[in-house]
């Protein structure tokens, strides 16, 4: 269908039919779904009529080729103009084959595998009839109390932007119309949702526009520059205005300044939530503010369908605004090829072949290997095949390793630690005991675990959070391991055996009670469907850990937010000659995070030469080439993430102590050296000034190269703009 045909279709629609296109309803409103027509509870009070359902534009949370085909065909029989439905769902880190959570994927620093994970998720979802995924999440995160940090790739705007682009490429491919194995991507949550006060979900955000543009908007912009078709609004306020009614942020910045003409959708219920936020007196005012802010689709509340007809009739809303929104939705359906092929990729037979196939599981296992981060190793790992292992803990044989937003993932079909250990170790060398529950601990569990541990050479403790402890609505004020597991670990340490801890979690943890009692720690996050096999291959040294943290681990919750790219103060802690007390510090803990951004250990070691610069003066036309030689000084092959940071010594506004500007992931054999080069340009030194202009300042800069944000070698250079 061509653009002029879409305009003709729009002109044939009644006002009520147009407004219904702006309504997104859950699957059980539709004939053909498993529970279609069974509307109970709060949904029953929405006042959604059959006419509204027949003319609605999109469905939330429906999948399975058979169901999607049934719903779409039933809808087209009833819809007067034959306008197909859009099928949307949260396909965040896998459909049926579950990959590690996005925070873990971030720790891989591997754009190709990240893109592949999204491509596989799209392939499985598309063959099941899904058209749009609510991903990637490009929120910058600095507060691990917030449960949704697991859905981001970390605390750095540059790296988040790289991953956002990779995910969009994976989901959408190069031909969204012709390639029915791809999905339209919806970047979220616009904007700055990761800054929710107190790390509490749905909470207030307050920051300057300069900081918004400098740190929180770049990753969303990167996703849109890569071609993301949709944007989802966030639940929070900015400058006192909830996003779903925020004209300045949505219509002026996103639409007019950035030129985004794709579909903008609210998060679940966010339009009606303008009322409890306190900026709308009733549903009519909520609908008015959201449509004026250019929110095209209202997800799972009914303000538009009930209130927009009257708002148009009395002149408060010009029908042309509704036409714009409807046309954007119709254009997305056109780009997905739904007018010509309303069933698109849904294929019952192919679904059985594609979903959770061996190739997809292999890719999930490989990414899980790259995503795990070795946090500590006092010469305990890797394990030897002949060692007797006591595998203990609530995650020793637990399928709850997929993590939040693993919708259709199967815990029963996941690769668990216990079977993976038994398959890898020598016969009879692994004993498994629960030891404790996630939040409970009994003497009976302890006695069983103690007996297993006393017979072992090495104790492996599989500890962590239940998946419900993170993700949406998973905010926690105490981000230590639950007390029951800390008690188990402490008792195990008293047995005098080497203790290896494997952590399953969706956020950086306060490792108090863990770090001092463990001889080695592997951060596995929620590793997905192939987690057990991936972790076992790392623990036995079949694979060498290469993950690097993309979110800092705090010493304690009292430091939060703690992140590498922070500002200095007028009284920095280590200023020469400073009074030891009257500096910016805590009296009881360090200022620095326990584990910094970029950190991760390996079974080998690497050395860095002093960085060599092509020159000490940079101009707009003359970049600086940075070269460093990295050598594998250990005994096994390993991967290193070489990281490049800069610091602007004197800006028009305060600049961060370090900013990541580039990185390279390299693989080296024992004794091998490789020269790694980066080209640093004037454009990379630009930032938002107090007047919101975006430019660089001449003057002195520092350049840092190293394996993480703290252990770096530095050089100086100057930028000259004359």
UniProtKB/TrEMBL annotation:
Read off the PROSITE patterns from this record.
GLYCOSYL_HYDROL_F3 (PS00775)
**Uppermost EC category:** hydrolase
Please give the Pfam families that the UniProt record associates with this protein: Fn3-like (PF14310), Glyco_hydro_3 (PF00933), Glyco_hydro_3_C (PF01915)
**Keywords assigned:** Glycosidase, Hydrolase, Signal
Could you give a single Gene Ontology term from the biological process aspect? glucan catabolic process
UniProt-listed Enzyme Commission number(s): 3.2.1.21
Which Gene Ontology terms cover its molecular function?
beta-glucosidase activity
**Residues covered by the Fibronectin type III-like domain:** 640-709
Q: Which InterPro entries match?
A: Cellulose_Degrad_GH3, Fn3-like, GH, Glyco_hydro_3_AS, Glyco_hydro_3_C, Glyco_hydro_3_C_sf, Glyco_hydro_3_N, Glyco_hydro_3_N_sf
* Catalytic reaction(s) noted: Hydrolysis of terminal, non-reducing beta-D-glucosyl residues with release of beta-D-glucose
**Similarity-based family:** Belongs to the glycosyl hydrolase 3 family.
PANTHER family annotated for this entry?
LYSOSOMAL BETA GLUCOSIDASE (PTHR30620:SF16), PERIPLASMIC BETA-GLUCOSIDASE-RELATED (PTHR30620)
Q: What is this protein called?
A: beta-glucosidase
Higher taxonomy? Bacteria, Bacillati, Bacillota, Bacilli, Bacillales
């Amino acid at each position: 269908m061509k653009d002029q045909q879409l305009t003709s279709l729009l002109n044939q629609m009644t006002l009520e039919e147009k407004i219904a296109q702006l309504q997104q309803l859950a699957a059980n409103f539709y004939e053909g779904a498993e529970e279609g027509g069974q509307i109970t509870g709060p949904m029953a009070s929405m006042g959604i009529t059959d006419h509204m359902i027949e003319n609605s534009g999109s469905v939330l949370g429906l999948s399975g080729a058979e169901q999607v085909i049934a719903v779409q065909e039933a809808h087209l029989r009833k819809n007067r103009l034959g306008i197909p439905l859009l099928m949307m769902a949260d396909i965040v880190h896998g459909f049926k084959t579950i990959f590690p959570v996005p925070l873990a994927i971030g720790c891989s620093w591997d754009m190709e595998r990240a893109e592949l994970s999204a491509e596989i998720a799209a392939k499985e979802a598309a063959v099941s009839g899904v058209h749009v995924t609510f991903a990637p999440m490009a929120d910058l995160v600095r507060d691990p109390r917030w449960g949704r940090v697991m859905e981001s790739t970390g605390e750095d705007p540059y790296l988040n932007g790289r991953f956002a682009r990779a995910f969009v490429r994976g989901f959408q491919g190069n031909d969204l119309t012709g390639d029915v194995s791809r999905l339209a991507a919806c970047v979220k949550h616009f904007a700055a949702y990761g800054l929710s006060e107190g790390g509490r979900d749905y909470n207030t955000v307050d920051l300057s526009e300069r900081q918004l543009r400098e740190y929180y908007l770049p990753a969303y912009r990167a996703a849109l520059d890569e071609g993301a078709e949709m944007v989802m609004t966030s639940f929070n306020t900015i400058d006192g205005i909830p996003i779903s009614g925020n004209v300045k942020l949505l219509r002026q910045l996103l639409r007019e300044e950035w030129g985004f003409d794709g579909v903008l959708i609210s998060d679940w219920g966010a339009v009606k939530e303008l009322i409890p936020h306190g900026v709308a007196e009733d549903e009519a005012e909520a609908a008015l503010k959201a449509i004026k802010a250019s929110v095209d689709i209202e997800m799972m509340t009914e303000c538009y369908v009930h209130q927009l007809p009257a708002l148009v009739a009395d002149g408060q809303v010009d029908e042309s605004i509704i036409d714009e929104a409807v046309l954007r939705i119709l254009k997305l359906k056109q780009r997905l090829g739904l007018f010509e092929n309303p069933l698109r990729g849904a294929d019952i037979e192919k679904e059985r072949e594609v979903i959770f196939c061996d190739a997809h599981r292999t890719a999930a296992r490989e990414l899980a290997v790259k995503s795990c981060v070795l946090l500590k190793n006092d010469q305990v790992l890797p394990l030897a095949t002949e060692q007797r292992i006591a595998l203990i803990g609530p995650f020793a044989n637990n399928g709850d390793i997929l993590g939040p937003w693993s919708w259709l993932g199967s815990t029963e079909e996941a690769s668990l630690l216990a079977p993976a250990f038994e398959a890898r170790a020598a016969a009879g060398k692994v004993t498994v005991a629960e030891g404790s529950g996630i939040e409970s601990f009994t003497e009976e569990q302890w006695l069983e675990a103690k007996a297993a541990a006393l017979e072992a050479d090495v104790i492996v403790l599989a500890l962590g959070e239940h998946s419900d402890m993170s993700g949406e609505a998973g905010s926690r004020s105490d981000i230590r391991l639950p007390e029951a597991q800390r008690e188990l670990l402490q008792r195990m340490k008293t047995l005098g055996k080497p203790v290896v801890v494997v952590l399953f979690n969706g956020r950086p943890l306060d490792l108090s009670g863990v770090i001092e009692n463990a001889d080695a720690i592997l951060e596995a996050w929620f590793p997905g469907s192939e987690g057990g096999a991936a972790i076992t291959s790392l623990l036995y040294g079949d694979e060498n850990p290469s993950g690097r943290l993309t979110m800092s681990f705090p010493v304690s919750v009292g430091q939060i937010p703690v992140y590498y790219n922070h500002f200095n103060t007028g009284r920095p802690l280590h200023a020469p000659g400073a009074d030891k007390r009257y500096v910016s510090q805590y009296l009881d803990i360090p200022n620095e995070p326990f584990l910094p951004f970029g950190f991760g250990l390996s079974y080998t070691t690497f050395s860095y030469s002093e960085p060599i610069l092509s020159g000490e003066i940079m101009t707009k036309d003359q970049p600086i080439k940075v070269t460093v030689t990295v050598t594998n000084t250990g005994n096994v092959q390993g991967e290193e993430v070489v990281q490049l940071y800069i610091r602007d010594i004197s800006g028009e506004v305060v600049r961060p102590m370090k900013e990541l500007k580039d990185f390279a992931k390299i693989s080296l054999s024992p004794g091998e050296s490789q020269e790694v080069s980066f080209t640093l340009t004037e454009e990379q030194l630009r930032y938002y000034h107090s007047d919101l202009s975006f430019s660089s300042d001449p003057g002195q800069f520092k350049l840092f190269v190293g394996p993480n944000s703290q252990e770096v070698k530095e050089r100086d250079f100057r930028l000259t703009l004359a």
